[in-house]
Specification:
globular; alpha/beta; six-stranded parallel β-sheet; 231 residues; 10 helices
């Protein structure tokens, strides 16, 4: 694991917390896996948790469609993705915030930090999930898959978020659970906490995470944030 920077370097400079969505605000991956399994069943195919973690997590629908159906037309790939996402939204009715998240968001509010969300998910999914989690009002900046010409793992989605926030990379920190997401955030020069809901900690560190936390109650994160606020 890399060494976290001295929190004093962020004291008075930290202005925003930027979160991925799936697997980061909530552990939605099991719901996505179920949706994939049901959507693939008519094609006589299945998907294991390992296949999901290795080939699906954090990737765009376009990439997933090409990987699952390389012999189909782009229109057919898009149709499968649309059907799967509609199924996901039907199934994702009881999402819960990751442990410690609400306390962290409350803390951010007390400290005057702005919140942003950066996701490869389509807009309908992003709106559905934020509404299901009762978090929509907390995130004034949301960057969705359609907003970037180059999605994660390219840094562009996080660069768009920083531009909308009017901040430099050292004025925000990011939270990501997937390899493409960590590469995107760290590639935009953000201090990135990996959230180990879908990947092994060493995988996230290899992708570029500075530190890895189990959830938002993790002492690693809380001690560092305490150091940012207090001398």
């Amino acid at each position: 694991m890399r060494r976290l920077p001295d929190p004093a370097a962020y004291r008075g400079r930290l202005k925003a917390l930027i979160f991925d969505m799936d697997g980061t605000l909530t552990n939605s991956d099991p719901v996505h896996l179920r949706a994939f399994a049901e959507a693939l069943a008519p094609f006589g195919r299945t998907m294991t948790e390992e296949e999901f973690r290795r080939s699906i997590s954090g990737r765009t629908n376009a990439e997933i469609g090409r990987a699952l159906f390389p012999d189909r037309t782009p229109a057919e790939q898009d149709r499968f993705s649309d059907d799967k996402e509609a199924l996901f939204r039907t199934l994702a009715t009881d999402l819960t915030p990751l442990a410690g998240l609400i306390d962290l968001l409350d803390r951010a509010g007390r400290q005057g930090l702005t919140l942003a969300c950066v996701t490869n998910a389509p807009g309908e999914n992003a709106r559905h999930m934020l509404d299901a989690l009762d978090l929509a009002a907390r995130f004034p900046v949301v960057v969705i898959g359609e907003d970037a010409e180059r999605p994660k793992p390219d840094p562009q989605p996080y660069q768009i978020a920083l531009r909308r926030l009017g901040l430099a990379p050292d004025e925000a920190i990011a939270f990501e659970d997937s390899v493409p997401g960590v590469r995107s955030a760290s590639g935009a020069a953000l201090l990135t906490f990996g959230v180990a809901t879908s990947q092994a900690p060493e995988t996230l560190v290899e992708a570029g995470a500075t530190a890895v936390i189990a959830d938002y109650a993790d002492p690693i994160l809380l001690r560092w944030l305490d150091g940012v606020v207090h001398s």
